[in-house]
Write a structure and sequence with these properties.
about 90 residues; mainly alpha
Length: about 90
């Protein structure tokens, strides 16, 4: 049987940090306490970059994206991912 965790009221963040640093949560939970979860809308983190490309290539990329009815930056990411994966 698991212990019951008693969480005090904290006066400040430092005291709370020390409390959680001393607590071993494994003492309060069993593996059976957890179920599987799914995050279907979770997207990988990304960050903006600056990339110089010839104008004709950007135009062609936008035309192709328009044909496929997807944003051109999404198509560009797909092409880059395919290229990287093929080279491995």
């Amino acid at each position: 049987m698991n212990k019951k965790l008693s969480i005090p009221t904290f006066k400040d963040e430092n005291i709370e940090r020390k409390f959680w640093g001393r607590v071993n949560l494994a003492e309060y939970f069993d593996e059976k306490d957890f179920g599987s979860v799914s995050f279907p809308n979770l997207k990988p983190s990304s960050r903006p970059i600056s990339l110089r490309m010839p104008e004709y290539l950007i135009v062609r990329l936008k035309e192709k994206a328009n044909e496929l009815n997807i944003p051109y930056q999404s198509l560009m990411k797909e092409y880059i991912a395919r290229g990287v994966l093929e080279k491995q």
